[in-house]
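This entry is listed as follows:

___
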Amino acid sequence: MESTEMQGCHPRPTWIASGIASCTLEDLAEICSTNSIWTVDLAYLLQKFCVEFSYYTITFGANPNYSIEEFYKEQLPEDLVRVDLLFRKAHESGIIIQCRSVSIHEISCLLLSGNYIAIALVDQDKLSKSWLEEVLVSGLHSSNSCYTGHYVVICGYDAVRDEFEIRDPASSKIHERISSKCLENARKSFGTDEDLLLINLENMRNQNGY
């Protein structure tokens, strides 16, 4: 019998156990000490709360080529030094950064295990609009939109429908599903570096008795 039950969608007890849920957004912003949040900032934040994770990216440090993007243009000159310093100090801080692409197949398999969720950097515009490409005639949907960096939590995968369940802070929906094609377009857009934080839920459950 076919099942469309979503696997791996129960991250909340883990966040409670880690202590993150007890923090306000103001508390987290103060810890980060910047309003220009990069994935490496999130990695240091997770490290502070003793959350076990794996960090993947295709670019080590801040990419100066992103200065052509409106999203990065204003803040990038200031961020270059700060972000590159965080990358250089990552290893001694206990943060291992792996410079490689992670395939959508790898992500789906890890989610299906029930032991992982992921935080992905995506192009918000492509995330919100790429579903149109699946229903409209080719050419009607403009591909000239500007990049907008945005983070989503990927917390489940439906193998039958080839869909991912995400938590999107910019969406009013509590539960949201997107196709694997849509997710790939959004997370591999120029500007994302395919940044991915894989959160290990199993070790946190074991440590906290869940």
